[in-house]
């Protein structure tokens, strides 16, 4: 499949243009119809460290040697997994010794392409060369190795059909499209092939291979031209009838056809007629190059030798797209180095040839049946309920169960043992504890806002301002009262609860407090008051929770007995359901606390009206 | 031993069904297959199933499976309580570990509020340890899944709804590292190599992490509609280039090749409704099984490259009800286990 002297040809071609690497993708011997690594030559940067072999090598020899080493290394990486016991064959290189470009070249060895897919696959399908100048920023739909190419700073990749496969050339330089270059390379290949074909000119010495480019470029076509004249002539006639054809282009496109012809003849397996067809096909493809031509497509299909399932039109538009499209899906965190390391770690443990089958006894014993398109009817029944029901429950609801459970026990702790906490600031994960701290802070701010008469503005500064103002007024009031008591020394100590009630109610209406020359709430007093209230409530317990849901908007109305910390508990219960409030209104009257909460569901939540209600009733019923 | 519990119903040559008193979700096979002294003559396989009850008390039952008969026998003395349903069960992947005191002992890990290790002995189960990374008892980051590192079994990686993955050294009982892996809840985690793991998240991405370089990660795939959560991840242990993931509310199994990030190499789209579980074949690099709401378990053979019309599965099995869980145990590669409703079924491949 791969000609023996392919590597030498690649080397020669590559050195003539000073590019980094060349790969010949050929039909895979294992899987027909699939392109895999046939041969390659590496001509790029080399880390000098491990290349000193003691023996003086010419630059050519170094190149061959290195390519051989890389291939060995790849094979050793692959076999490492198959026989974990046997030590991996001693490759003279290890992945750490590679430059980025070498690494790219190495990973390329593991790729395979279907006809029509990937860069080489498309070239085979269309029979047209592809010249890509921004390989590293190309859409990975077209060039699947773009991320790798980026890490190796490969900029220009060129693919063109050759013999049964595809030649891929790449360089780290930016080289603008130049079809003459491809032709020149093809000519040089042609030269070598011809020279080594015993049927044609067995006498030509091997020395030719070592010849410099200058020689190659100046290669004398006569030897085979004589033979090919009829075919080429036919091609010319055929193409000049095409409206797009220009004689210049034709001249330029002659060599590739010749390449192809010689290739055919060398194989000696194709009839003259087929060859003619192919010449025609190739030629018109090249002439039209980037012009959409329905002729091209039909001709491609007409040629049985080159099965191309992907229509040219699509390829071309993709190609055009790829030049404009930037790769969008790059991880902001991603680092080429990281990606490479991971790949090398994994490639070591992977083996593409490991195709163990486990279905030998299938037909006798398995309960599985052969899949058929229609399938049995019982699968067609309409589904009831949500999809992925249990899986979603496991992933979304089970965590919530744990959190709810924790919250409950935590609340008990909080109110039995008083407040305990904030000891985890030194925890190993600072960001997480920070995130929790912020959530807690926000919660407490909301609670504070509900306790302090405040304006409509609910940013933190306003809440704090209101609180400061409120406490100042309280302090002032305390001083006034104490002064009063000192002077009069009478029994003002015990305030009656009705007065407190007024006070508490007024807390929530900012317009009322400032004229509050009445009395001031002290914590102790609230407690006193509460006892009486809860006593009263036992008689007429009208705890009630009403939920009105409209899309993500939730209106919650709660009637319950007032108690210290009640509001905070409700807020916490709502927070744990991922409900965040837009506004909270509370009124206290007749020994009842009336709450109206307007809120919004955020994030992935499974909070249903029923769930919210249950959660809130739990809080409300707690006395 | 309580023999009133049925051995197994629906017994046949190529499948066996276990009826549980409660709905089942989590499921795991022991890698050892001769640790049951009750039937020394035949080899039996220990497996664990976890209940799914939406209440505090849930159960983990240990069963023994005899592939020769085939039959499943519950081992009531080995059942134990678990707080809320376990999100995943997994046995110690290796037969040798300082934590394994004898060959008759299995180690079982469960995830839920915390990662827990249980020692499954011949006739009893003992809670061995609880791994809690939080300094205070007031906070807990519930775990959606975990994976035991087969190459270095002292490592367990857990995924949490708090966007992190935690890597435990279970032998020393310490956290090796905790990474903020994703922008949203992490739903599954899978080891590829001793120090490389990948995770999927509600943020819709598959990311690869390397413990040698904790600062970086590589996004291997992102769901096409932004932020479609990815729910499960399976790394092909026979060919680490490939991994598979499933999306929320999707009938697709997405096959990824780590060498060409962002472009799936194949999308398996023959399920008639959403996919719930995926498992790679333990002994073949090219086969994967998937199961879903359409009650089918499908076995796929991955071609080298996908054709234009998508990939058809090779084989199928119909369970009659949504399949929620799927395991293809390495110790019994000829059998695939599926869980649906309150049944667990072992199917001969």
Key traits:
heterodimer, A: 623 residues, alpha+beta, 4 domains, six-stranded antiparallel beta sheet, four-stranded antiparallel beta sheet, 23 helices, 51% helix, B: 349 residues, mainly beta, Thrombin, subunit H, 2 domains, five-stranded antiparallel beta sheet, 49% strand, disordered N terminus, activator (chain A), coiled coil (chain A), protein dimerization activity (chain A), transcription regulation (chain A)
Largest interface: A-B, 87 and 105 residues
Q: Please state the second-level CATH architecture of the largest domain in chain B.
A: 7 Propeller
- Give the helix proportion of chain A (percent range): 40-55%
Number of domains of chain A: 4
Compute the CA-based radius of gyration of chain A: 41 Å
Structural class of chain A: alpha+beta
Biggest sheet details of chain B: 5 strands, antiparallel
Helical stretch tally of chain A: 23
Number of strands of chain A: 11
Share of β-strand residues of chain B? over 45%
The outline of chain A comes out as elongated
Number of beta-strand segments of chain B? 29
- Which ranges of chain A are low-confidence, i.e. pLDDT below 50, for 5 or more consecutive residues? 50-54, 81-90, 194-335, 351-363, 377-382, 414-428, 492-541
Highest CATH level, the class of the largest domain in chain A: Alpha Beta
What fraction strand of chain A? 5-15%
Q: Report the C-alpha radius of gyration of chain B, rounded.
A: 19 Å
Biggest sheet record of chain A? 6 strands, antiparallel
Describe the structure.
The complex is a heterodimer of chains A (623) and B (349). Chain A is an alpha+beta fold and 623 residues long. Chain A folds into four domains: 1-177 and 311-350, 2-Layer Sandwich (Beta-Lactamase), CATH 3.30.450.40; 206-309, no CATH class; 405-539, no CATH class; 540-621, Alpha-Beta Plaits, CATH 3.30.70. Helices cover 51% and strands 12% of the residues of chain A. The longest helix of chain A has 29 residues, at 460-488. Chain A starts with 5 loop residues before the first helix and ends with a helix. Chain B has 349 residues and is mostly beta strands. In chain B, strands 2, 3, 4, 5 and 6 form a five-stranded antiparallel beta sheet that branches. Chain B has a four-stranded antiparallel beta sheet with strand order 1-29-28-27, with no helix packed on it. In chain B, strands 7-8-9-10 form a four-stranded antiparallel beta sheet, with no helix packed on it. In chain B, a hairpin with a 4-residue loop joins strand 13 (164-169) and strand 14 (174-180). The chains are: A alpha+beta (623), B mainly beta (349). Chain B: This is TTG1. Chain B: Keywords: Acetylation, Repeat, WD repeat.
């Amino acid at each position: 499949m791969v000609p023996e002297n392919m590597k030498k040809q690649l080397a020669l071609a590559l050195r003539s243009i000073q590019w980094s690497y060349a790969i010949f993708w050929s039909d895979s011997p294992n899987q027909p119809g699939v392109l895999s690594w046939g041969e390659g030559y590496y001509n790029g940067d080399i880390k000098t460290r491990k290349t000193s072999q003691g023996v003086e090598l010419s630059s050519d020899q170094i190149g061959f040697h290195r390519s051989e080493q890389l291939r060995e290394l790849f094979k050793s990486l692959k076999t490492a997994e198959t026989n974990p016991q046997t030590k991996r064959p001693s490759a003279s290189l290890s992945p750490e010794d590679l430059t980025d470009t070498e690494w790219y070249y190495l990973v390329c060895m593991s790729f395979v392409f279907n006809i029509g897919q990937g860069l080489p696959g498309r070239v085979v399908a269309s029979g047209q060369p592809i010249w890509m100048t921004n390989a590293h920023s190309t859409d990975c739909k077209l060039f699947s190795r773009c991320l790798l190419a980026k890490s190796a700073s490969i900029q220009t990749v060129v693919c063109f059909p050759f013999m049964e496969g595809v030649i891929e050339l790449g360089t780290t330089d930016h080289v603008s499209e130049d079809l003459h270059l491809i032709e020149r390379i093809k000519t040089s290949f042609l030269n070598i092939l011809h020279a080594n074909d015993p049927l044609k000119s067995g006498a030509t010495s091997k020395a030719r291979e070592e010849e410099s480019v200058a020689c190659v470029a100046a290669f004398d076509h006569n030897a085979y031209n004589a033979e090919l004249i009829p075919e080429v002539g036919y091609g010319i006639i055929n193409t000049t009838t095409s409206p797009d054809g220009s004689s210049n282009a034709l001249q330029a496109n002659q060599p590739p056809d010749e390449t192809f012809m010689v290739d055919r003849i060398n194989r000696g397996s194709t009839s003259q007629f087929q060859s003619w067809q192919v010449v025609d096909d190739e030629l018109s493809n090249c002439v039209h190059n980037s012009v959409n031509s329905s002729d091209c497509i039909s001709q491609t299909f007409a040629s049985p030798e080159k099965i191309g399932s992907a229509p040219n039109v699509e390829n071309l538009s993709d190609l055009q797209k790829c030049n404009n499209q930037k790769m969008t899906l790059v991880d902001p965190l991603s680092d080429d180095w990281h990606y490479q390391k991971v790949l090398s770690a994994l490639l070591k443990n992977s083996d593409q040839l490991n195709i163990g089958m486990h279905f030998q006894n299938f037909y006798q014993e398995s309960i599985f049946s052969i899949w058929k398109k229609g399938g049995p009817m019982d699968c067609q029944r309409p589904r009831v309920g949500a999809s992925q029901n249990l899986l979603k429950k496991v992933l979304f609801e089970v965590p919530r169960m744990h959190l709810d459970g924790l919250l409950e026990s935590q609340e008990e702790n909080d109110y039995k043992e008083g407040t305990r906490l904030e000891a985890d600031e030194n925890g190993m994960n600072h960001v997480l504890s920070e995130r929790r701290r912020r959530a807690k802070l926000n919660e407490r701010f909301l609670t504070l806002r509900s306790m302090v008469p405040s304006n409509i503005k609910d940013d933190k500064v306003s809440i704090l301002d209101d609180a400061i103002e409120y406490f100042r007024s309280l302090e002032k009031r305390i001083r006034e009262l104490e002064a009063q008591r000192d002077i009069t020394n009478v029994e003002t100590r015990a305030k009656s609860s009705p007065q407190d009630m007024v006070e508490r109610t007024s807390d929530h209406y900012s317009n009322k407090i400032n004229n509050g020359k009445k009395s001031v709430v002290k914590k102790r007093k609230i407690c006193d008051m509460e006892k009486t209230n809860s006593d009263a409530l036992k008689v007429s317990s009208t705890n009630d929770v009403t939920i009105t849901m409209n899309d993500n908007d939730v209106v919650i109305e709660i009637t319950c007995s007032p108690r210290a910390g009640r509001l905070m508990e409700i807020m916490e219960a709502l927070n744990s359901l991922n409900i965040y409030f837009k506004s909270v209104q509370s009124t206290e009257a007749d020994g009842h606390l009336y709450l109206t909460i307007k809120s919004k569901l955020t994030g992935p939540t499974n909070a249903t009206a029923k769930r919210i209600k249950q959660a809130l009733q739990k809080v409300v019923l707690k006395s | 031993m309580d023999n009133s519990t049925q051995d197994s119903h629906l017994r046949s040559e190529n499948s066996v069904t276990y009826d549980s008193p409660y709905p089942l979700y989590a499921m795991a096979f022991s890698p050892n297959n001769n640790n049951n002294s009750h039937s020394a003559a035949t080899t039996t396989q220990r497996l664990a199933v976890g209940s799914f009850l939406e209440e505090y008390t849930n159960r983990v039952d240990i069963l023994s499976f005899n592939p020769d008969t085939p039959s499943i026998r519950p081992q009531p003395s080995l059942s134990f309580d678990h707080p809320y349903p376990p999100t995943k069960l997994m046995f110690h992947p290796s037969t040798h570990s300082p934590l394994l005191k004898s060959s008759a002992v299995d180690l079982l890990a469960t995830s839920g509020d915390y990662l827990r290790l249980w020692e499954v002995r011949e006739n009893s189960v003992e809670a061995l340890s609880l791994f809690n990374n939080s300094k205070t008892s007031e906070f807990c980051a519930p775990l959606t899944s975990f994976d035991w590192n087969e190459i270095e079994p002292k490592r367990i990686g857990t995924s949490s709804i708090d966007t992190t993955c935690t890597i435990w050294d279970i032998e020393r009982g310490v956290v090796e590292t905790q990474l903020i892996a994703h922008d949203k809840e992490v739903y599954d985690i899978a080891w590829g190599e001793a120090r490389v793991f990948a995770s999927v998240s509600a943020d819709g991405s598959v990311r690869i992490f390397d413990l040698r370089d904790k600062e970086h990660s590589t996004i291997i795939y992102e769901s096409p509609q932004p932020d479609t959560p990815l729910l499960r991840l399976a790394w092909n242990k026979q060919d680490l280039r490939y991994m598979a993931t499933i999306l929320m509310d999707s009938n697709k199994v997405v096959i990824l090749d780590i060498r060409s990030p962002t472009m799936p190499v194949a999308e398996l789209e023959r399920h008639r409704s959403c996919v719930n579980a995926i498992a790679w074949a333990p002994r073949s690099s090219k086969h994967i099984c998937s199961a879903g709401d359409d009650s089918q378990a499908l076995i796929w053979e991955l071609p080298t490259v996908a054709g234009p019309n998508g990939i058809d599965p090779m084989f199928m099995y119909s369970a009659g009800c949504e399949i929620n869980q799927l395991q293809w145990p390495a110790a019994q590669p000829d059998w695939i286990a599926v869980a649906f409703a309150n049944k667990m079924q072992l199917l001969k491949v």
